[in-house]
Amino acid sequence: MQQHSTKKLSHLLAPSAARLVAVIAVSFVGGVHATPALLGSPAPDFALRSMGEANVRLSEHLGQVVLINFWATWCGPCRQEMPQLDALYAKYQRAGLVMLGINIDEGRDAAVEMARTLRVSYPILFDARKEVSRAYRLDAMPLTVLIDREGIVRHVSEGYKPGYEKRYTEKLRELLGE
């Protein structure tokens, strides 16, 4: 009898374990890390000072698609990705895309210099105290977050490799078309 109940228990657990493995596998495919606490949840609101000295609040962009990119001057992949993001911004800004680059360096000078050198046209914000980075569970650089018009996190990507911008383009087209 005990052997029968063990089989029954393992039979009940097997589908759950399989689902868990599937969820984990899908979450980590291709550099995408679907942070469960963020994906499908309301994006944490914040207000940060921009390079132009104005404060920018995320909630002011409700009704628009927002791409947030966390970056640092010491991050090589960030430097590689920023021109690609700027091209996406130029292409989709008129369709309603808001792009916010959030720098996490301690000081602003090197970040300002890098943004100017790379000719970034989207707003650059500063999170020197790392409060916003913690709210978005920053674990790897760069971190790119796509937020839909209702303020829900719809895509999270950690790191950057050439070609990721194609994935962002697909997601942006989907979100901008909704």
Provide a concise account of the structure shown.
With 178 residues, the protein is an alpha/beta fold.
Describe the structure.
It is a single chain. By secondary structure, the chain is of the alpha/beta class. The protein folds into two domains: 1-30; 32-177, Glutaredoxin (3-Layer(aba) Sandwich), CATH 3.40.30.10. It contains five helices and seven strands, in the order αβββαβαβαββα. A five-stranded mixed sheet has the order 5-4-3-6-7, covered by helices on one side. Strands 1-2 form a two-stranded antiparallel ribbon. 30% of the residues are buried.
Strand-helix topology:
Layout: H1 2-28, E1 47-49, E2 55-57, E3 65-71, H2 76-92, E4 97-103, H3 109-117, E5 124-126, H4 131-135, E6 143-147, E7 153-158, H5 164-177
Parallel strand pairs: 3-4, 4-5
Antiparallel strand pairs: 1-2, 3-6, 6-7
Categorize the overall geometry: globular
What is the C-level CATH assignment of the largest domain? Alpha Beta
First-last Cα distance: 56 Å
Order of helices and strands: HEEEHEHEHEEH
Radius of gyration: 19 Å
β-strand number? 7
The main pleated sheet reads as: 5 strands, mixed
Strand order of the largest sheet: 5-4-3-6-7
* Mean of pLDDT: 82
**Residue ranges: pLDDT <50 for 5 or more in a row?**
1-34
Fraction in helix: 40-55%
Supply the number of structural domains: 2
CATH fold type of the largest domain: Glutaredoxin
CATH homologous superfamily grouping of the largest domain: Glutaredoxin
